[in-house]
Amino acid sequence: MAKRSLEQAIGIITESEETRSSIPRVLRYALINTESYPNKGKDLPDDFVKYFIPESEWFEKKKRGKKNDWMQCQKESGQTFIQWQRSGSSLPFGRRTTIYLIPLAFNEDSIPKEILDPIKAFAAVFFQIPVKVMRTKKFNKEVPNRINENSNTYQVDAGKVLEIMKPLVPSDAFCVAGITMCDLYPTESWNFVFGLANLAGNCGIYSLARYLSNFGKTQTTVYEPTSEEGGISTIFKRACKTMCHEIGHMFGLKHCVFYECLMNGSNHLEESDGRPLFLCPVCLRKLQYSCKFDIEERYRQMIPILEDFGFKDDSKWLKTRLARLETLKKD
Ligand SMILES: [Zn+2]
Ligand SMILES: [Zn+2]
């Protein structure tokens, strides 16, 4: 069944557009509940069409990628909106509506405030629910660790860190996301992992170690803003992408195979850097269903943060997308 879904998903991406309807096949497959809207999407509410059935130029279909890219190595079938809904993922509800970020330090410095403050601001806009930063949790050597043979870096067992984090989850937390500059591994057989979340979906950890330009020069990664390629902007963008991707998993979102999307899986730094900062219509619909945000307001709030860091292409995309949504309002 999973194989069939994958074939369907890939087929949808490579086939020419369906002619019976103006709704791309990929979205009819991944986004529309045909039980609720049996008329091939022609009976969808106007706002749904406006926000989630964009013209083809706005979102690029998922590329097959190169040999060592995620899609070539991990056979994932993707997750439609209905599959996500039926997965029973927890949503921000009642008292549990706050995302907590917790800086974690092992054998290296904690995440500097100049990175932590802006990524907190970006997370609050991205998810549109409250985001708070907890006090740094410092570990001694109690977490299983190793020196990675390939990178010669100090790594900690991310799964064990998640176990230790469990009792730290505040009563009003939707989730707690640990951020560290320490390199991570998920199991002995894996080389490394950028991030990991627990199955309950309320604890996650992600690492910025491999995003720093001096990674691998010493066993513990050191943040040196003056020697950072692309300066703090590059680190900020990488940190935001990883954080929002990992927290996205906590909302039950699986890797996206439909579009070039923030929720695409990533096997290496070049692939992570190539991921968009934004969600495709399928993933956006899942998150919007979870957090009940105003899509235009959310896009609007992202612009000044991205402009502060000089991301002109991203802010231009947001502005033109907003302008297009504005014209649809008048139609
Ligand atoms: Zn992921
Ligand atoms: Zn997506």
From TrEMBL:
Instruction: State a single Pfam family of this protein.
Output: Peptidase_M54
Which EC number(s) are documented for this chain? 3.4.-.-
Q: Which SUPFAM superfamilies match?
A: Metalloproteases ('zincins'), catalytic domain (SSF55486)
For this chain's UniProt record, which GO biological process terms are given? proteolysis
Q: Which keywords does the record carry?
A: Hydrolase, Metal-binding, Metalloprotease, Protease, Zinc
User: GO molecular function terms here?
Assistant: metal ion binding; metallopeptidase activity
Query: This protein's superkingdom?
Result: Eukaryota
User: Needs which cofactor?
Assistant: Zn(2+)
Its EC top class is hydrolase
Q: State the name under which the record lists this protein.
A: Archaemetzincin
Recall the taxonomic lineage recorded for the source organism.
Answer: Eukaryota, Metazoa, Spiralia, Lophotrochozoa, Mollusca
